[in-house]
């Protein structure tokens, strides 16, 4: 479960910054400082020295950190890339294979199996690709690099605690370049807080134990605020005269109010008419449309990419039998370079769009919606070449 990308969606270091001596000083001295800090936190010195004895700085981790990508694709393109029939078939087979574990999760946490299956699929392809970066090397390297020590340094001492429990081997524990471990990709601190011994062997081993991984992922979701036995996403059909400025995650109405405004489920009935929700139209009023229930907001607690989150939530519904969404006929969007031009123009107009990164993030969407209203256009927060030309 990739909690970390929430915090990693930052501006990449400049080439000049990448060549500077890390603020952590010499690497060996930095590691000695970690041992001293571990002792100050109550760890045994000899244990800490064994834990850090073989740690090495990793150039591969720094390269991966500098080159991290950000989702620039639209929802339709991105979801079609990630969701294949093979992934759906495998997910349904895994649901059967581990049915007793999912039953336990549903009893104890009220979390539907499709939700965890979707993350299991997207994070590691159901455990097949968990990453081969040495976790301790990654965490120490990124802490020594000093760009985000507040992020990584606490994870080092959490890993030390896991080592003391017999659940972390500094020589062999591996995972993603940013320190996440296991089938659902959790950081050491999150494993300490939410790790569950799902198979009863006395250890929490997210790399090799499916019950441990799924139960830990479920506890994490519960810890983040998942409301038991409630839905998260449902495809809907929208009326042509909807007030488009009321769409987006920031606009919440009761499901009954949406119903009275002409919003209808694409099939069947509303999953919970007694709840509230937001209308999400990722590619404007002519594209796909979804009703996001309160649990959908929990997805943003582990990844802030709107496109990734919506795709994960939608895939979870597909794994539980939902039909393929109606793509509609959305207006053409902007290229990455055009999006940067739009952001520059919006920024010059006084809008806070965050970084000029070519990404249609929440701040850019809000600015687009406001400009559309000012220009008398449908305020669906979907920027088009025509809007760019108007600006």
Output the keywords:
391 residues; two-stranded antiparallel ribbon; single chain; globular; five-stranded antiparallel β-sheet; disordered N terminus; mainly alpha
Strand order of the largest sheet: 4-6-7-3-5
Individual helix count: 18
Give helix % range. Answer: 40-55%
End-to-end separation: 40 Å
Strand content: 5-15%
Q: How is the quaternary structure best described?
A: single chain
Order of helices and strands: HHHHHHHHHEHHEHHEEHEEEHHHH
Number of strands: 7
What is the radius of gyration computed over CA atoms, rounded to a whole number of angstroms?
A: 23 Å
> Spans of 5+ residues with little confidence (pLDDT < 50)?
2-21
Mean pLDDT, nearest integer?
A: 92
Broad shape: globular
Protein name: Lytic murein transglycosylase
Organism: Mesobacterium hydrothermale
Domain Peptidoglycan binding-like: 335-391
Pfam families: PG_binding_1, SLT_2
SSE arrangement:
Blueprint lengths: L4 H4 L6 H5 L7 H14 L4 H8 L6 H8 L8 H8 L2 H13 L1 H11 L3 H12 L8 E2 H11 L3 H16 L9 E2 L12 H7 L15 H15 L8 E5 L15 E2 H6 L3 E2 L10 E5 L9 E3 L13 H14 L16 H13 L13 H13 L10 H6 L1
Antiparallel strand pairs: 1-2, 3-5, 3-7, 4-6, 6-7
Helix pairs in contact: 3-4, 5-10, 6-15, 7-9, 8-13, 9-15, 10-11, 11-12, 12-13
Detailed description of the structure:
- There is one protein chain.
- This protein is mainly alpha-helical and 391 residues long.
- Among the domains are: 233-298 and 307-319, no CATH class; 336-390, no CATH class.
- It is 47% helix and 5% strand.
- It has helices at residues 5-8, 15-19, 27-40, 45-52, 59-66, 75-82, 85-97, 99-109, 113-124, 135-145, 149-164, 188-194, 210-224, 255-260, 306-319, 336-348, 362-374, 385-390, and strands at 133-134, 174-175, 233-237, 253-254, 264-265, 276-280, 290-292.
- The strands form two sheets. The protein has a five-stranded antiparallel beta sheet with strand order 4-6-7-3-5. Strands 1-2 form a two-stranded antiparallel sheet.
- Helix 12 (188-194) crosses helix 13 (210-224).
- Residues 2-21 have low confidence and may be disordered.
């Amino acid at each position: 479960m990739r909690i970390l990308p929430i915090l990693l969606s930052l501006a990449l270091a400049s080439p000049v910054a990448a060549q500077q001596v890390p603020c952590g000083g010499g690497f060996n001295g930095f590691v000695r400082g970690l041992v001293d800090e571990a002792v100050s936190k109550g760890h045994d010195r000899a244990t800490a020295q064994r834990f850090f004895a073989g740690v090495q700085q990793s150039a591969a981790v720094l390269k991966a950190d500098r080159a991290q990508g950000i989702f620039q694709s639209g929802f339709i393109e991105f979801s079609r890339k990630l969701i294949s029939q093979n992934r759906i078939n495998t997910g349904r087979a895994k649901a059967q294979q581990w049915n007793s574990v999912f039953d336990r999760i549903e009893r104890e946490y009220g979390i539907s199996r499709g939700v965890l299956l979707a993350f299991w699929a997207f994070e590691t392809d159901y455990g097949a690709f968990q990453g081969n970066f040495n976790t301790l090397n990654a965490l120490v390297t990124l802490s020594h690099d000093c760009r985000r020590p507040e992020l990584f340094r606490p994870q080092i001492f959490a890993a030390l605690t896991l080592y003391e429990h017999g659940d972390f081997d500094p020589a062999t524990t591996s995972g993603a370049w940013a320190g996440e471990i296991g089938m659902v990709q959790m950081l050491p601190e999150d494993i300490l807080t939410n790790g569950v011994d799902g198979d009863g062997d006395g250890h929490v081993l997210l790399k090799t134990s499916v019950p441990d991984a799924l139960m830990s992922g479920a506890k994490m979701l519960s810890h983040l605020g998942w409301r038991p036995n409630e839905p998260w996403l449902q495809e809907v059909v929208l009326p042509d005269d909807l007030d488009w400025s009321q769409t987006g995650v920031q606009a919440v109405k009761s499901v009954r109010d949406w119903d009275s405004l002409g919003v209808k489920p694409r099939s069947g009935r509303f999953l919970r008419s007694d709840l509230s929700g937001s209308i999400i139209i990722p590619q404007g009023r002519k594209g796909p449309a979804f009703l996001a229930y309160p649990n959908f907001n929990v997805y943003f607690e582990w990844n802030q990419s709107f496109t990734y989150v919506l795709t994960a939530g939608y895939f979870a519904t597909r794994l539980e039998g939902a039909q393929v969404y109606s793509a509609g006929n959305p207006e053409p969007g902007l290229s990455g370079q055009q999006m940067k031009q739009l952001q520059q123009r919006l920024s010059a107009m006084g809008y806070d769009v965050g970084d000029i990164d070519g990404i249609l993030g929440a701040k850019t969407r809000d600015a687009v919606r406001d400009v559309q209203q000012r220009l008398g256009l449908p305020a669906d927060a979907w920027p088009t070449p025509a809007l760019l030309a108007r600006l």
